[in-house]
Fold:
Amino acid sequence: MTNLKCQVPFTGITIDSLGNLVVCCASDRFPIKHISEVDNLSTFFNSEIYEKIRKPFTDGTFLSLENCLHCSRAIKTGSLGFIQTYDNFGFSYELDGVKIQYLEVTTSNICNQACVMCGGKYSSKWIPYEKDAAKYNLNFRTETFRHSTNISKLNTDDVNKILKILPEISVLVIKGGEPFSDKNNMILLEELAKVNTKCKVHIVTNFSIMSERILKTIHKFEDISIIASIDGFGDVYEWIRTTTWERILKNIFRYNEYGGRKIAVSTTMSIFNWWHYREMAEYFQDVPGVNRMTFSCLVEGPAYCSPLYLSPKHVEEGKQDFLTFLQENYSKQENALSDYTGETWQHKNNNFRIHRVENLLAVESVKETLTKKYHSQRKHIIPWLQFCNNFRNVDFDIRDVVPELNDVEKEINDVI
Ligand code: SF4
Structure:
């Protein structure tokens, strides 16, 4: 039993990249139903099925559920789970009946990038590569929950179900795939702009696609956050995400010039950018059009891309290097918590901020607790890295840009 409360099942619903209705993005391995099986989202949210889902959240036992492992682990390690992020929306319970106030939608897995830590479930671009991985004996590939070899996209009926609830929501979060690769997202945004411009809009995008139509539509909302998934710059970015850095930078400038707005650089921590955060902050703090960098996500799986599977020495190296940089150049902000922020540091000479630093500092190597699994997963790091060197749209070896990965390789070979 816990005194902590999670508001999600009482106020929000999430549609994942396969069209499944799930309690939240952090529990997307546990679909409740597929949207095609539900006639009306509001009625479903008030149904007996949902009543049952809410029970452990009412009696305080939810953190022992497998669905909520992400949050229970975050709470234990001192990092920020979705439970805290969500709390900051401050939704009201003083309503007649249970009302969807937060809607998170991923309309498809259509994407134009094949990021090293991703897979077919979230990126259609990965589908042919996933098939190749099996051919090259990388059979461990199918073990990741991100693995899929099918394109999934909401049909018109399903999109209409979402359109119906747009007038009543307070927050719309759009994720992908790449949201701007799928026209359904423009349909949602254009309708929302007609019926509910007061709605807060968060778009999690790789920011590689920009057009006049997109710019015009997103500027109709008073409160919009562009959370751009950018895990580095230059070669490190290009290797991880397979799009040219020049293209991303051009879009950042274009967005800023259009309406004076700025984006958040949202970093997914992997073993490929683990030693790159100091350089990233030094770079982005001077880019017009970016006002913050945030340590949004940690790759927990696939394990062979996760900093959790680096050695304790390397984990500490990455953390210490960044912490020293922060202490020298930034000041920790007290009481800075608001949507998606967490532990916040502000540059000593300007307004650039770095958020959710606790997510970086909480990373610990799993070596001590999971030695057998640790070694078996680490054996996949170099074959996977070589596959990604050779079979995606990149023409260089990441070890030439991140030499620390050669040390990782040596450590692995020493054990074998
Ligand atoms: S506790 Fe975390 S994982 Fe569980 S429903 Fe709430 S936000 Fe989602």
Q: What stands out?
A: The mean pLDDT is 92. The first helix runs from residue 8 to 11. The two ends are 44 Å apart (CA to CA).
